[in-house]
Amino acid sequence: MKGTEKPQQAAQLVELPKGREVVLRVVPMPSDANYTGDIFGGWIMSQVDIAGSIPALRLARGRIATVAVNSFTFKQPVLIGDLVSFYADIVRVGRTSITVDVEVYAQRRTAHEAVKVTEATLTYVAVDDERRPRPVNQESG
Asked: In sequence order, what DSSP letters do the residues of 28-51 get, joined into one string?
């Protein structure tokens, strides 16, 4: 190990969150992985953006746009064949913006428990048909 590398922490197995709605569930395929079998971070980021947009879309009742990735932490790798579950909760609503926390868990093919693999916070803005910001509580159209 080189001097600047940190050893990866052992994955802590957890149960999937109870009493929370799964907004997206997907199994990554070999085409989503690098040559070592780890899923590309960009693939995970894309899925997180989709998952975070779902509660934002419901609240905004219309078109939204991603305007910020406030934080994004990869805690553990996602592997080919994992069952990946995305949980998203609205944590802040502004006049035109909606901030969403997303937690991602992977169930390994060989385990019934899950591993928390990613945490992120994203901000979306409600937009009208001309893609201009509009109040969250007003439908587009």
From this structure: --GGGB-TTSBBPHHHHHHHHHHH
Go through the chain and tell me how many residues it has: 141
pLDDT, tens digit, 9 for 90 and up, residues 10-60? 678 888 888 888 999 999 999 999 999 899 999 999 999 999 999 999 999
If residue 89 lies in a helix (H) or strand (E), which one and from where to where? strand 83-93
Phi first, then psi: give them for residue 33, nearest 5 degrees. Answer: -115, 160
The rounded Cα 88 to chain-centroid distance in angstroms is 7
Q: Domains of the chain: which residue ranges?
A: 13-126
Topology of domain 13-126 in CATH is: Thiol Ester Dehydrase; Chain A (3.10.129)
Structure tokens at 75: 């805690």
**Tokens, residue 77:** 């790798």
